[in-house]
Fold this protein.
Amino acid sequence: MTLPHWKDGEECPKPFAELREDMNKQDLAELRSKGASEKFTSTIGFDNFTKYMERRIEVMFAQAIGPVLKKLKDLKQQNLEKEESMKDEIENTNPAQIVSTVRDVGMSFAHSLN
């Protein structure tokens, strides 16, 4: 892959995108002039490089996002369990229910002493 270039100290001769496209065409023309088969043209030049990188990044992202989604699902499940536990705890710390429970325990203890 030939990258756009110009001499040090000079201004860029064309807009960079045009220069990049020219270098891409130059690479493909060079490959064809050497008599390379068409199957190699999909691996030469900046345009093909960008297509490859787009696909590669997409695959890498898909592979990386799987474990993240699994972790999020696990955290959601843990938080739902904590929420349920806290609801039970709030219900069990209701003052009216505590008095009733203490009274029942006291009566049970007293009956066991008889």
Residues 32 and 38 are 8 Å apart (CA to CA). Residues 45-113 form one domain.
